[in-house]
């Protein structure tokens, strides 16, 4: 196809609307499914007679398996196409989601959640790449912003739907309700997703893919962004995994009110869309430093033994995290001048490994220490994150003073 005549789907066309709505539905399905047990953790802990760390494994194992499978899914999409991988991934995960609530015990439930996380991996692995390939570059930023909004709203629904249903039914049926919503979003995505026109299959070899990923780790800025994703997401998930226990035990909230706390995700929907304007005003480096500092201050404020202070701090923390994620993921595309799919998949791999590993380990700290110690531990992780953002900013200044490159890529906002 002559790309001088056709550069992608343009905004204003019916096909563009279908593409954007399909990716919005994909984001809703993916993150609704991935975090559908998080709001249920206190109830599952009490009902099954397990520890908070054990119940949190229903989240950590899903994100961990998703992390392990993101890179293979990205590689397979180079041969079989982004759309095919996306549809297969979400369809299998949605069907499995209807079975998971009726697992006979916690061990089976955790194992099935791990399998579901593996199946979900194809969606985040290829969604942004599909948009980058199929949409006109001029309109890509708008579509990316809607996709990321779908991610945040999907994560929010994954908490609110089961938390709301928990008021009128058992946690297993609440989980089934969230899984049914995932199936609906998946059907919408399959029905709307346009066929690919600009995808070019690539001959894939394990040697080349491994060399490409190793090459990205040798780039100091990319390596720091990968580690930033690991720590930022790990800290974020750790806070949301265990804050619900504090809301119930310390502040006496009901499960449905604890679920309503996840409305803070809406601050992330807003901030991820505004992150691009902030980067244009301050630059990439100063932006990520500012957001890391905001996360640290907000985390420290959450040590205060007051419900409303905690809620306000959580709002600021959530907004800063999603803006940081949006900025960092967009920066990946600007730095990686080749093998961008592999760079994006490595970023997401680190992102979800952080969610799984740090989220699980934080449960041990939470179980055996006071809230003050727990907050101090998470603040320590964020201080390391701040150091890395400062290093990123310094490297960016050095790069800016060097001769300009021809790399171009959209920001994911």
Automatic annotation (TrEMBL):
Parts of the chain that traverse the membrane: 16-35, 55-73, 85-104, 173-193, 222-245, 251-270, 282-301, 307-334, 346-365, 371-393
Record membrane topology: Multi-pass membrane protein
Pfam entry (one): MFS_1
An MF annotation (GO) of this entry: transmembrane transporter activity
Major facilitator superfamily (MFS) profile domain span: 15-396
GO cellular component: plasma membrane
Main location: membrane
Compartment list: Cell membrane
Entry keyword Flavoprotein: no
SUPFAM superfamilies according to UniProt: MFS general substrate transporter
Record keywords: Cell membrane, Membrane, Transmembrane, Transmembrane helix, Transport
Gene3D superfamilies linked: MFS general substrate transporter like domains (1.20.1250.20)
Keyword Transport carried by entry: yes
Domain of life assignment: Bacteria
Family: Belongs to the major facilitator superfamily.
The protein's name: Putative transport protein
Species name: Corynebacterium efficiens (strain DSM 44549 / YS-314 / AJ 12310 / JCM 11189 / NBRC 100395)
